[in-house]
Design a protein that fits this description.
The chain is elongated, with a radius of gyration of 23 Å. It has helices spanning 43-50, 72-78, 94-104, 109-122, 138-149, 168-183, 195-201, 219-225, 241-249, 272-285, 300-308, and strands at residues 4-13, 17-27, 32-36, 58-63, 66-67, 79-82, 156-160, 187-192, 204-209, 212-217, 229-235, 257-261, 264-269, 290-296. The longest helix has 16 residues, at 168-183. It contains eleven helices and 14 strands. Mean pLDDT is 92; it is low at 316-321. α3 (94-104) crosses α4 (109-122). It has two domains: 4-223, P-loop containing nucleotide triphosphate hydrolases (Rossmann fold), CATH 3.40.50.300; 228-297, Alpha-Beta Plaits, CATH 3.30.70.100. The strands form three sheets. The protein has a six-stranded mixed beta sheet with strand order 6-7-8-3-9-10, sandwiched between helices. By secondary structure, it is an alpha/beta fold. The two termini are 37 Å apart. β4 (58-63) and β5 (66-67) form a beta hairpin. The structure holds adenosine-5'-triphosphate and magnesium ion. Adenosine-5'-triphosphate is lined by residues 13, 17, 19, 37, 39-45, 84, 193, 317.
Length: 321
């Protein structure tokens, strides 16, 4: 049985917005699944359907084996959700909030307090436990939000952009908790605009663009699917020189794919090490000086660029930004 399965799952908003335009998912239990996409690509809409907060307008989805539409209650018992817009009550302290959450899940007062204590330790908030949430930093609020999603020991955890807008240290902390939870067997569905986050945490990744999945597989498979090395050249000089360099490099043997990205030129070419000399020669012959040239294996960013035609731009949105 899959932890999360969907076929042709879709959600249309009036008048004519195809937020999610028919996606298929088959996620095995125990995995971290990274759902990558830029602003407006349909990540949150997908999460809201999978967590029973929004009805699909097409297709179906099962979470923990239960249909999200006809058996929402059974789904909700087995999942934890930390939404993009944190729903924390800021007047409470962290401890009060977690204790209340535990009581809402049917625990007695004493058991709820014990669970709150455990969770505060997991997300390193024990010391701040008795301060009001209003005074927490963005990173602390995200950690508390994560703890709140864990109260009832969910099998499957949905995290919608858990680190957007956080500083690198807070981000590392969240990554550590997610990896720990996954080691304990929790399946994690994580949306993100950060390629590095998907690369670090996820065993499998789907790239969303305008409501559809344009690529899916392990980060290694996706990078290998590019089938070439990546040579990046930064030509010296005036505006427009990158365009001219790109024109020139398209004449290389085998007519490689060449893209202009900012003031650099990216060449997708097999056996990149052998291509360096011809690249330098061709540019020099055309009177173009080179400031910098690097050879790399493809990254998820290259996969994203290849599949969508644009870079992923992490533009934080929402209350936590
Ligand atoms: N309730 C709604 N009514 C109308 N349109 C909506 C609604 N919710 C989402 N949309 C639209 O659906 C599309 C996908 O939105 P969604 O929030 O799923 O994207 P996202 O990938 O989560 O983006 P972000 O990275 O900014 O959070 C957008 O065009 C958005 O404007
Ligand atoms: Mg979103």
């Amino acid at each position: 049985m899959y932890a999360i399965q969907a076929e042709q799952l879709a959600r249309t908003f009036k008048p004519d917005i195809h937020a999610v335009a028919g996606i298929d998912l088959a996620i095995e239990p125990g995995k971290v699944f990274g759902f990558l996409g830029q602003n407006g690509s349909g990540k949150t809409t997908t999460v809201r359907m999978l967590t029973t907060l929004l009805r699909p307008t097409g297709g179906w989805a099962r979470v923990a084996g239960f249909d999200v539409t006809s058996n929402g209650g059974a789904v909700r018992q087995r999942i934890g959700v930390a939404l993009q817009e944190a729903g924390l009550d800021e007047v409470q302290t962290g401890r009060e909030l977690l204790t209340l959450h535990a009581q809402l899940f049917g625990m007695g007062r004493r058991q709820a307090r014990e669970r709150a204590e455990e969770l505060l330790a997991i997300v390193d908030l024990t010391e701040a436990a008795d301060r009001r949430v209003a005074g927490y930093s963005g990173g602390m609020q995200r950690r508390l939000d994560l703890a709140a999603a864990l109260v009832h020991h969910p099998e499957i955890l949905f995290l919608d952009e858990p680190t957007t807008g956080l500083d690198p240290i807070s981000r590392e902390a969240i990554w550590r908790y997610v990896a720990d939870l996954n080691r304990q067997g929790v399946t994690v569905f994580l949306t993100t605009q950060y390629l590095e986050e998907a690369d670090r945490l996820a065993g499998e990744v789907a790239i969303m663009d305008a409501g559809t999945i344009v690529a899916q597989g392990s980060p290694e498979e996706l990078k290998a699917s590019i089938g070439t090395d990546v040579v990046t050249v930064r030509p010296a000089g005036h505006d427009g020189v990158a365009l001219k360099a790109a024109e020139t490099l398209r004449r290389l043997e085998g007519s490689p794919e060449v893209r202009v990205v900012g003031d650099s030129v990216v060449v997708y070419i097999p056996e990149g090490a052998r291509a360096i000399a011809p690249i330098v020669l061709l540019l020099t012959e055309s009177g173009i000086e080179i400031t910098d040239i690097t050879l790399a294996r493809p990254t998820l960013d290259d996969v994203f660029l290849r599949k969508t035609g644009h870079h992923i731009e992490a533009t934080p949105t929402g209350a936590h930004a």
